[in-house]
Write a structure and sequence with these properties.
Elements: H1 5-30, H2 45-49, E1 51-55, E2 58-62, H3 67-72, H4 83-93, H5 107-124, H6 137-171
Antiparallel strand pairs: 1-2
């Protein structure tokens, strides 16, 4: 019985993508916010947009660019926040400040005010403005490797049993 290796490798790679995405959702469910214990990463836009893509022999995580602030945290003395992600977040949440007359200002202006406020906070170096890191990428990879090893073992055992069965049938 001939084994179609390319087909099996493709099937296994597809299974690895599934494993990576499943493990990511489990990790997102387990990681919370120290300031809001009921808030989990699984409820975030980060988890909703997380995808795994196969690129040749490698796998790429497609994820929002603000993941780095969750993964690495942010010190109180860190510089201004990036404007594009902040404007996008403000517009998604429909958060805008009002001017002196009570009219809404633009999302860009709101983001600019927040960044100016952050500069004042940065000078205070207060520990209450530190964002603790919540590393999740390594957890996803580690958990996925464990699951992938289980899949490989099941595959190898199946193939070994299949070969033994074929040899026994040939003897009959």
């Amino acid at each position: 019985m001939a084994v179609n290796a390319k087909k099996q490798i493709k099937t296994f790679r597809n299974r690895l993508v599934e494993i990576l995405e499943q493990e990511a959702q489990q990790v997102f469910e387990s990681i919370g916010n120290q300031h809001v214990p009921s808030s989990k990463l699984s409820n975030s836009n980060l988890a909703k947009t997380f995808k795994v893509e196969q690129q040749g022999k490698a796998f790429a995580f497609l994820i929002n660019d603000y993941y780095q602030f969750i993964e690495s945290g942010r010190k109180a003395s860190a510089g201004a926040m990036p404007m594009k992600p902040m404007i996008r977040w403000l517009s998604e949440k429909n958060i805008r400040f009002r001017d002196k007359r009570g009219r809404f200002i633009t999302f860009r202006a709101t983001a600019s005010i927040i960044n100016k406020s952050w500069e004042k906070i940065k000078r205070t170096k207060s520990k209450r403005f530190i964002i603790e890191p919540r590393p999740f990428i390594d957890l996803i990879v580690e958990n996925s490797i464990k699951e992938a090893i289980k899949e490989i073992n099941v595959f190898l055992v199946d193939k070994a049993l299949e070969n033994i069965l074929i040899e026994e049938l040939k003897k009959i």
